[in-house]
Amino acid sequence: MSLKKESLSDAQLHLAALNGNLPLLTRILDSGKVHVDSRDKDGTTPLILAAANGHFDCIRELLDQGADPNIKRITGTTPLFFAAQGGYLDIVQFLLENGAHVDTTSQDKATPLFIASQNGHYKIVVYLLAHGADPDPRRSDGVTPLWIAAQMGHDHLVALLLKAGAFVDSPKNDGATALFKAAHKGHSAVISELLKYRPCLGLLQNGESALHAAAFSGNLSVCKQLICAGSNPNLKNQDGATARQVAEHNRHRAVIDYLSQFSRRKQ
Predict the structure, then answer these.
(1) How far apart are CA 82 and CA 92, in angstroms?
(2) Where are the ANK repeats (predicted)?
(3) Three-class HEC string of 219-266
(4) Are the C-beta atoms of 133 and 112 separated by less than 8 Å?
(5) Whole-angstrom distance, CA of residue 30 vs CA of residue 149
(6) What is this structure's pTM?
């Protein structure tokens, strides 16, 4: 992308959008000395700055003066992406009403729904889904909105995305699923939601199970939760180790004591 050097007027317009200074922004635009979509070295425009910082009135003025609602930075991120990231529901609504594409992707294939899910913005996720957002897009590394919501512990979002059609066992490129990551992080409420959709409790593409992940991190309550759901305590991972042996390696005494009872039963 070729970006021209910023003029003084460009810089002033960007600063006005960043700070939400509507009178200054309007005055600069009305002067005719600067393009409404003037870019800085990163491809950022006034509309992107206003969206990222929650300045609704500036956004309305910029769009009225012809700003492109789908313009992208060099990272591929749009005004809608930044509004979703910041949790600005009114701006998300306004941008979509004014032609923003709901499933626009960044360079790493992240969508506005993805970033809203990552940041726990429930109402924005609801709104994006209601306006046609794909519930299950994969970022370049394979991570989906469901996966990232599970990692962050957003159980209400996990429930919402599953209901919207997200695939419970969609793996990251390394083979880890949402259940695996939630087990590793100790997010029991997330696990409860995932278990309603019968996720894989056995070995995953990464050669581990969710129980191994919980044992690795020493999450006793999650180990109990997974065992109750049907996880096999004697299942061996790709290295030939059971969950108890993983816990032993990491010196998680409470988990070792709990899982030892299942080893004894096998014997």
Answers:
(1) 9
(2) 42-74, 75-107, 108-140, 141-173, 206-238
(3) CHHHHHHHHHHCCCCCCCCCCCCCHHHHHHHCCCHHHHHHHHHHHHHH
(4) yes
(5) 43
(6) 0.93
Look at the block and give the residue holding tokens 């300045």: 55
At which residue do the structure tokens 């000395």 appear? Answer: 33
Give the model confidence (pLDDT) of 220-231 as tens digits: 999 999 999 999
pLDDT, residue 2, reads 35
- What per-residue string of b and e applies to 43-74 under the rule 16 or more CB within 10 Å gives b? bbbbbbbbbbbbbbebbebbbebebbbebbbe
At which residue do the structure tokens 């949790």 appear? 87
Amino acid at 26: T
Contacts by 1-4, CB closer than 8 A, 24 or more apart: 1/43, 1/74, 3/39, 3/40, 3/41, 3/43, 3/74, 4/39
CA-CA distance, 227 to 156, in Å (whole number)? 23
Residues 6+ apart with CB under 8 A from 33: 7, 9
Mean pLDDT over the full length of the chain: 95
